[in-house]
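Agenda item 2: pyridoxal-5'-phosphate complex prediction
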Amino acid sequence: MIYADNAATSRMDNEAFEAMMPFLLEDFGNAAQSYSFSRAGKKAIKQARLTIAECIGALPEEIYFTSGGTESDNWAVKGSTLLSGELRETITSEIEHHAILNTCQTIERLGFPVIYLPVDRLGVVKPSLLRDKISSKTKLVSIMLANNEIGTVQPIQELCSIAHENGCLFHTDAVQAVGHIEIDVKKLKVDMLSASAHKFNGPKGIGFLYIKKGTNLLPYLDGGAQEFGIRAGTENIAFIVAMAVALRNNVKHINHSFIELKKLENILISELSKAKIDFIRNGSSLGLPGNINLSFRDVEGEMLLHRLDLLGICVSTGSACNSKKTQISHVIKAIGVPADYEKGTLRISLGKDNSEHDVLRIANELTRIIDSFKNTVFVDKINK
Ligand code: PLP
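Presented output:
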């Protein structure tokens, strides 16, 4: 099998897997208890918080463990907008993940206005647009650091300073970026940042929200005193430990991985071009390493996905078909992919386990499938 859907989830880092095992089988004590049996777990959480903080340039007390990216996004948006009860607005973008978009719909239903900024053809949120829309009514700006479908990296530093000049909080959904590109929250100056372990070779169902010291946020879960009293629930020690090890290992090799993945991207693109396949590359080649979003002319992305699946290749698509019509993803719509290409969108997302052999095979199989499909359509037309 060739797994090329690393933006959906990634294989767990071996060392991270090893590191979490003792906290399931041996040191399984509840970290909230004060007897000595719980000491190992407590110490492990402290160390994990420190490791994660170091990886993103934060302080340990600014890292709050959550159940993943979705929870972190929900917390950042609801926790800041619902805090005072004043009906102030949120500004976000049209290409956010549904963890943000659907959270925004919820706050809209509660009466909090939301502005959705459009993006340009590469998927970039123009800072000038934010400047036009932001006002004294705005409370929060939430713009993702890197897009999950097309890999576009946003000018976060610039967007964040506009928010701050206007007295607003700035949150970034960095779920696709953490562990893949260098992140320093002090340089970015963001107030909140969401991350999810399974996107950087950690376990599923664990993540964190960075909350800058001094930022006032409504507790996400009420209950015990865990996570400095604002996110209750018995800590998932094993997954917290594994998340920290996975992030540390990814960050250690971040530059090497970046170069290798860009090399693989170039091979794939040049093989498809050599084969004279008609496609558009969405997003920018300067985006997330390994994220290759392609729209093929006059073919169905779903068909490509299933044909590749039969060959043991996992990728994802930018559309979903039902019996009546093909639904194009909101991101592909927002960047304005031409009508004869949009249905044929595939996302190939490479990770550290992928090789040159993998991308050559993907390019080769895609070429064969598209050529055979075109020939069938041609023969069908003649027969009619
Ligand atoms: N935000 C982005 C940009 C994502 O890509 C994802 C997952 O695909 C999420 C949020 C949700 O993260 P999780 O799967 O950890 O809930």
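Discussion summary: The chain has two domains: 2-6+253-370, 14-252.
Owner for follow-up: CH.
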